[in-house]
Amino acid sequence: MNKVQRLINPLHLEGLHHEADMMRNVDVHRVLYQTCGRQASGLAKSRSCQQHKDESERNQRLVIFDKDGTLVCIHAMWAPWIRGIAARLENATDLDLANKIFNLVSFDNNTGKIKPGLLGEGTMSQLRDTITQLLSEEGVPREKAERIVQACWQVREMANYGDVHAVGDVGHLFGVLKSNGYLIAVNTSDSRGVTEQTLDHLDLRRYVDIVVCGDDEDVLPKPHPSTAQKICRELGVHPSDVIMIGDSTSDMMLGCNAGFRYSIGVLTGIAPREVLERDATYVVDDIHQALHLILQDSS
Questions:
Q1: 63-96 pLDDT, tens digit each
Q2: How far apart are CA 140 and CA 148, in angstroms?
Q3: Whether the Cβ atoms of residue 156 and residue 120 lie closer than 8 Å to each other
Q4: In angstroms, what is the C-alpha Rg of the chain?
Q5: CA 117, 122, 127, 129: dihedral to nearest 10 degrees?
Q6: Burial 85-117 (b: 16+ CB within 10 A, else e)
Q7: What are the residues facing 166 on neighbouring strands?
Q8: Assign residue 138 a region: left if phi > 0, alpha if psi is -120 to 50, beta otherwise?
C-alpha cells in the first residue's frame, strides 16, 4: 500500500466534508494527494535544516501532543459516548443501527476498544456527516436525518470526570519539559469545549502554550498540516524545532507533512506498533518513554 493510500484509508475519508467553511467545496482526496506530494520535499527540507542550522541560532523548541490516546485514555472517554449516540439514534428511528455505526467509526463494541479510524482520528463534523449519510442510506430523508442526528448528538460534556483517565503523570511530564525550555502544544481532532474542559480537569492548562482543535474554523483536520502550521506560526517556532507525539497514523503523517524534526508514536491509544512504525521516527510505550527520548536528544 502506498503513502497516499495509507494517508486516506485510516480516516475513511470518502464522502466526508471538511469542517472549515472556507474549504467546504475542496475535494478531500485532492487536498491529501497534494499534501502527500509535498512529504518528500518537506522531510528533505527539515533534515537539511537540522544538519545546517547552528544550535546557537535555534528558536525555542516545541513538543506537540495529541490528546486522546496520548494524554488521556481514549477508550474510557469515547466508548460510552459512541454507545450512547447509537442507542439514541436507534430509539429515534426504530432502525437497527448500532453495529453499522460501530463498523463505520471503527469501534469494537465487544472489547470497548477504539480502533484506527473515524472515531479515533476524525472530527465531530466528520462523525456527524458520516452518521447522517448512514441514516440516508437506511431510507431516512436527508433533511430528516440531519434533524435526528442533531437532536441525538451530544458534544460531550465532562460532567462524568470518571471517564477522563490521564496516561500517567502528565502534569509532572509537562513540568519537566517546561523546565528544559520546551513550549507545549495540544493538537486534537476533538472539539474545543471538550478539550479545554479536559485540560482544566487534569490541571494542565497552565503548562500549555497553545491548543488547536478539530472544530477551529481556520484549520483543516489532521493529517493536513494546517493545524501544525498554525501552531508554529503563532508560537514563532520553525518546523525543524518541533517534535510530534501521538497514537495514530494521522498524528505521524501530520509530522511528515509539516516537516517536523521527528515524530514519536505511543502505544497507549488506537494504533499498534506495526502501524505506527510505518511513519513514526520512534515508537515507545507511552509519553514517559517519549520524554526520555526528547531529553536525550536535547542533551
A1: 999 999 999 999 999 999 999 999 999 999 999 9
A2: 10
A3: no
A4: 19
A5: -110
A6: bbebbeebbeeebbebbbebbbbeeeeeebbbb
A7: 72
A8: alpha
